[in-house]
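Could you help me review a protein record that somebody else here produced? This is what I was given.
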Amino acid sequence: MKNKAKVILIILCIVTLGMAQTGGIQVTVMFMGYNADPNATMIMGYAWEGATWADAEAAGTVSDNMDGMFGVSPGDDMWGTYDVTLDALAAGNYYVGVFETTGMMYNTAIATVGYYNDADENNIDMMTPTAITVTSDTVVLGTMMAMSMVIDDEILIPEIFAVDIYPNPFNPGTMIHYALPSDGLITVSVFNVLGQKVSTLLNGYKEAGSYAVAWNSTDGKGESVPSGIYFVTMEHPGGILTQKITFLK
């Protein structure tokens, strides 16, 4: 019997509200074929206050009722964007998480949809997130992707070097699926129509197999790019592949 593991892209944010500020936090999560746990009934966001994550977690959540909570249908792929909003938070240092739950309280949470590490451009780092300084009453922490997939222990090695990108056209993010027939270094980059490199999504060693990397329409500095045509180029010992994608706003 094959063992299957659920791989989830994570999103946890640390937010600092200045002493002179009070306001809310909005987390927008984009689901790309996400499969919720069979026991989950909804996905909700929560906030904790504390100087460190250990302090914040020990103190418990400061929010239970979310404007942006939404139900899930276990077994169905989830697509689209959803807002999880935390209103009227006092000034302080906050951590924000998005969770699958079996009810309307954090203590019923069964899985982490994600947490965000600002230092990791692919938003898949499990380390403690870096601080984000808040300078306005309402904080929008961008759009973050949550993707779920199943991996079998019995891995099939692709026969050819291939890439498939969808959705395309897209807004605001897309998934770049690629197959490697052999081990080796791989680079995944995005270029504009002028041939200028916009962002490097991946640059490292990968074993033969099938993978995916997300692009959320931002450049190497994390700033949103203009709408238009872009080219994704993949370089690997198996060859070089380029595919055109269209970003719509």
Q: What stands out?
A: The CA atoms of residues 174 and 215 lie 6 Å apart. The mean pLDDT is 67. The chain has two domains: 4-151, 155-247. The radius of gyration is 19 Å.
